[in-house]
Amino acid sequence: MEIIDFKNKIDNKKLKQVAKCIKYGGIIAFPTETVYGIGANALDKNAVDKIYKIKERNKDKPLIVLVSSMEMLNSIVKNINHIHKKLIDNFWPGSLTILFEKKSVLPDNVTAGLDTIAVRIPGNEIALKLICNIGVPITAPSANLSGKLSIIDANVVCEQLKDKVDFVIDGGISGSGIESTIVKVEDGIVKILRSGKIRKEDIEKIGLKVVQYDNNIYNHYDIGKELIMVSGDEISFNEKINSYLKMDNIKSVGIISSEKYYNNINFKVDKYISIDEDCSVVLKNLFNTLNDISNMDVDTFFIQSFDDNKIGSIISDKIREIKNIKFI
Ligand code: TXA
Ligand code: MG
Q: Is 216 a residue whose pLDDT tops 60?
């Protein structure tokens, strides 16, 4: 495996080398406008097979594909209607992944046998340039091992994928901090299958009818720790955790909160992880924070709740997807 540093500048010669590697069956990890992805030539059945092996992913879970142009989109999907077009015009390039009917050029394993393929044009310069150079669509499942958190940091990608990929492109901390919103259009209605930074309200604003499906069906991240989300302000944070500690036999306690909450605590804390007052900073670093705690020698973490504004709800939605999350 080779790590390529594109944090400050894209080296076009190197990019061509990586593009060639993918085109002929290689596998790479790369940044997107959401989280890091694993790329293979989406038209190459054997390369796609490797992705499932590398991620230890269940064969019935389809992959997302990225394209760099409408022309490339048209080469792999059919029946693009006016609602699809409206979504594309308003949100691409960017973090809205849309389901389309697939053409037969796409091997069956990309979509795990389904008739639909999930596609977007990514809003990330490295990803876009890469696909342009390859000239074919690439797969983009998240670059974590199956069941783990998505990754926003090339160093964490390297830890998990080690020598399983040919290249890791380091583009710094990737985009928005969470995965793309996934939608499908059915009976003239946009159905949100997975929540992301593009929200129901954002799609309604462009005059479309939107329905939000249960967003917990997709991911159940296993962070290997007990995580408890505490509702209320800094005063109830302290009170609720105190009562919980009396009830339960907890060996070591970690706190994930802003300093305002932490300063109000009157019990012993083994590990404190400070998070920003600003929700957008918290969101950007969320997966790194959660990845950090899964590596810490503490059993139970309490996390503060977040304001009910747009970014606050995105964070809460993501945290709800964690396996065995509790709320007090
Ligand atoms: O932001 C993202 O979308 C990232 C970046 C790297 O592209 N990728 C990502 O991929 O989150 P992954 O594989 O971790 O999640 C893709 C989700 C899976 O839950 C999969 O089941 C769903 O998309 N999916 C893919 N194709 C689908 C299809 N045809 N129908 C329904 N669900 C689909
Ligand atoms: Mg994933």
A: no
The pTM of the full predicted model, rounded to 2 decimals, is: 0.89
Torsion of CA 261, 264, 270, 271, to 10 degrees: 20
Query: Does ligand 1 come within 6 angstroms of the Cβ of 180?
Result: yes
Atom of ligand 1 lying closest to residue 33 CA: 1
Q: Measured between alpha carbons, how far is 264 from 61 in angstroms, rounded to an integer?
A: 44
Q: What is the pLDDT of residues 102-148, one digit of tens each?
A: 999 999 999 999 999 999 999 999 999 999 999 999 999 999 999 88
Tell whether ligand 1 has an atom less than 6 A from the beta carbon of residue 176. no
In 298-312, which positions are buried (b, 16+ CB within 10 angstroms) versus exposed (e)?
bebbbbbbbeeeebb
Question: What is the C-alpha to C-alpha distance for residues 56 and 44, in angstroms, rounded to an integer?
Answer: 19
Tell me what the mean pLDDT of segment 198-223 comes to. 84
Structural Rg of the chain based on CA atoms = 21
pLDDT score for 177: 82
Which residue among 142, 213, 217, 221 has the greatest number of ligand 1 atoms within 8 angstroms of its CB, and so is best to mutate? 142
Collapse the DSSP code of 18 into the 3-class scheme (helix H, G, I; strand E, B; otherwise coil) and give the result: helix
- As a whole number, mean pLDDT of residues 56-64 equals 94
* 170-175-177 Cα angle (round to 5): 110
Indicate whether residue 97 lines ligand 1 (CB < 6 A): yes
In this structure, what is the dihedral angle of CA atoms 45, 46, 49, 54, given to the nearest 10 degrees?
-140
Residue 264's SS3 state is coil
**Residue with more model confidence, 295 or 77:** 77
Please compute the mean of the pLDDT values over residues 217-240 and round it to a whole number. 88
